[in-house]
Give the backbone structure.
Amino acid sequence: FDFTLGDLDGQDDWTVEEGIANIVGGPFTPVAGTQYVKQEANSIIGRDVDGEDATRVIVRGWYRGEGSEELQPPPNDRPIAALLGFRKVNNNQFAIAAYDGNEEDYVEPTGGNGQPIVFSNDRWHKIILSINYETKTYDVSVNTMPHLQDVAFRDDDVEKLNGFQSFSRSGSGLDQIGFYPSDGDYDGDGVSDDDEMRTPRGNPLDPNRPDDYDFRAMGDLNQDGRTNFQDFVFLLELWGAYPWAGKSSIGFSDFVNILEHWGFERETR
């Protein structure tokens, strides 16, 4: 959102349908840029997008917020293919759910301990959707880690990408919303979008293959703007000596890989 600071309405075809949404800068800028959209509580923003004849579309964006106490349907009856919800877990964390048309409800994954996979509300998180208008399903990844797969469209009669809408009940930030029609391998790296969405560190918008990423201390394995060493310290502080999956933006297997690369012995517990 490299726009003029102030009201979002009317900038680059974006509309503020209800409430207040502004382009802001300052100390809370995301890793994706120097400006972002700040949505106040109970605001709705949207943008029409013509997906033309593309049967697959990748949607990417950055999110920061607390989430809502309860996940509810959008405040209008527009046909929707992919629908995400951000559920407040506690004062520091939220979970990301997706509406499954087969279940007729929101679904969200759990970690190895059976608890919801949660994300810190004081950080920005990169979310990618891979939408398939032929199979009427979509996949979700968060911070280049698989999150949900083969989620059924909420409305099967949606034939193509028509637009994007965000309704914020509690206030949130958005940045770098992008739409990318795909032939199944958008970045042309020889790994399909589907495989990259379902592979740790996979990113269908990045021509680097998942196994190309840098495990070194000063690398950025999960592309969150922090070095691997910073993530390592963060995990130690958060988990102590026992890194259970689902507590951060990188999983247990990545944690082990980083330790092994830095010369630590792996011990099975």
The longest strand covers residues 56-65. Residues 241-249, 263-269 have pLDDT under 50 and may be disordered.
